[in-house]
Amino acid sequence: MKTTIYLIAGILMLLILNSANSQDVTYNNAGPKKGSIAISCTPDLHSLALQWANEYTSLNPEVKIKVISASDKSANLGDGENVSFISSQSQAAITNKTNWKMVIGRDVIVPVINSGNPYMTQLMSQGVSQKKFTRLLNCPEKQNWGTLLGDNQNKAAHIYVVNDETVKSGVANFLQSVQIPATGITFGTKDEVVFAIQNDPLAIGFCNVVSLYNQGNQAFIADIKMLPIDKNENGTIDYMEDIYSDPNTLLRGVWIGKYPKSLYSNIYAISKIQPTNESEIAFLSWVLTEGQQYLNANGYCNLTNSESQSQLEKFNVAAISIQPVEKSSNAGIVLLVVAMFITLGLIVSAGVRKYRKQAIAVPDFNDSLTGFNENSVEVPKGVYFNRSHSWAFMEKDGNISIGIDDFLQHVTGPLTRVEMRNPGEKVKKGELLFSIVQFGKRLSLYSPISGIIKQQNSALTEDGSRINASPYSEGWIYRIEPSNWFEEIKFMDMAEKYKKWINTEFSRMKDFLAATLKPDSLEYSHVVLQDGGIVKDGVLADFGPEVWDDFQTNFLEIYK
User: Which has more pLDDT, 79 or 422?
Assistant: First the structure.
């Protein structure tokens, strides 16, 4: 059978190659580097849009990009089929649910203090709630550090705010006020505010985060610390609120919903319909990748790599283009069609035989297409399981195969790729070993054993769905040469014991979903448990990155 398939496939390839020599056939998933594009934008984004256009056209001289400011009457922000670059101030276009939109950048406002602040330890530990910030800025008689600390400290807090409409508007929204009160507050340029805070241990200020770090090493400038916000107002900076150590951690926290929405605004690419023009698609893909480097110079924050990848992966699903054959002979078409049908028939026939064999060998778990429960999770014998949902199995050569369990792949739904460490690297039990990714949303898993990585399953870097199809065979992730195998397996479970533990994981999963699906969570109102308590297969796929982050903490971190 295989020989027949190869023979037919070979004939088909010869026909295609022969056709390609005489016809104009182009397969393209990146879009042509030529053509004309019209981009409209709000006035505040004109400089950024112009730089993006100039940089892109310098790399692709055959592309012509016209940038139209909203002040130009020909601009058509969000209402036409051409793409517009719009900041959050243009609410009408953004809130229009019928528009296609994609985040391409961000402006983030942060509260900062001097790194020599005498109350640093307490402030970093407990943070400052929105209510305390409001009391500090709105009440001149309470503009002291005791207001922020919740004690009797009476040293004055010297308050600075960047004199920029975006910053002032964001801070006012954060304070749930129409505008910032002027009493007791010093306004200045971003450089003046940063300089004042760097030289005053009792200063506190609000400014754009991009003005606080060096673009080269992505580290905060000297003598400046971000002041943590106690978002849930419980008097402490919890693990889930601890996002202030460096710019990248902060920006990821903003993306996944850990930062107050009033203190940041997005930059969108918006159109009445999703772009189909290949030149536009190629340009927008560039904006999400190489073009991100120009955001900082224009006073905006770039997206994290994960968010850019998330936007790009979703966007490119519709961006793949196959240009039609323009010239062909009738005989060539007939031969191609016949060969294709023969090959397809043979492949389907072979697939049916394979499926029947598998159907006999695989037990019936009473699974359904929409849900899974304790009985539908596969737990093969002879495999050691770690409670952070990874497994380990010793191969005949003494190396250990590593992967994720069937429970976790059911929870995540189809994976798009796996991020792995390189062969030759040493790993210790409990160290970060790999991340599984679904359109930018990710979970990080930790090594169940110590040893040296001998081999990685490179097929997973492009096709993570192999894990979903076969988590214990084709979906293996590493082969590791163990260094402490017999000692470390004492802390792992095998089949029967692991099955019992999985029952408790299902109970925790249902509690987790119940806590996540609050009555006021309209964005997740469509996510439900199936009748009989069956968890929806791929349930995390319906949630945003903030829920994935909560799952990471509640189901993977606690057992590493």
Answer: 422
Residue 401 neighbours by CB under 8 Å, 6+ apart: 392, 393, 395, 476, 478, 479
Collapsing DSSP to helix, strand or coil, 83 comes out as: coil
Nearest to 405 by CA among 471, 460, 501, 477: 471
What number of other Cβ atoms are within 10 A of residue 28's Cβ? 13
Give the largest Cα separation in the chain, rounded: 91
Residue 96: inside a domain:
no
Q: What percent of the chain has pLDDT over 90?
A: 47
pLDDT over threshold 70, residue 61: yes
Q: Which of 178-187, 460-469, 480-489, 508-517 has the lowest mean pLDDT?
A: 508-517
What digits encode the pLDDT tens for the residues 518-555? 544 444 444 555 444 567 888 898 888 888 988 998 89
pLDDT recorded at residue 90: 58
Are 412 and 557 within one domain?
Answer: yes
The model's pLDDT over 36-57, given as tens digits with 9 standing for 90+, comes to 899 999 888 999 999 999 999 9
Measured in whole angstroms, how far is the alpha carbon of residue 367 from the centre of its chain?
A: 30
Neighbours of 126 (CB within 10 A): 18
Residues 356 and 504 in one domain: no
Burial tier of 440 (Cβ tally within 10 Å: 0-12, 13-18, 19+): buried
- In 3D space, the residue among 193, 134, 135 whose CA is nearest the CA of residue 163 turns out to be 193
The parent domain of residue 206 ranges over 107-263
- Residue 245 falls within a domain, yes or no? yes
- Whether 222 and 329 map to the same domain: the answer is no
- The last residue of one of the domains, among 263, 297, 312, is 263
Phi, psi of 501 (to 5 degrees): -70, -35
The verdict on 346 and 487 lying in the same domain is no
- Side by side, the strands of the sheet bearing 400-404 are 384-386, 390-394, 400-404, 478-482, 451-456, 426-427
* Structure-token match 């190869």, residue found: 6
Are 339 and 450 found together in one domain? no
Residue with tokens 């550090």: 145
Buried b (16+ CB within 10 A) or exposed e, 307-325: bbbbbbeebbeebeeeeee
Q: State the Cα–Cα distance between residues 177 and 262, nearest whole angstrom.
A: 11
Q: pLDDT exceeding 70 applies to what percent of the chain?
A: 76
CATH number, domain at 189?
3.40.190.10
Nearest to 271 by CA among 308, 318, 304, 322: 318
Residue 93 falls inside a structural domain: no
Which tops the pLDDT comparison, 31 or 485? 485
pLDDT tens column, 193-216: 999 999 999 999 999 999 898 766
| First-to-last C-alpha distance (Å) of the chain | 47
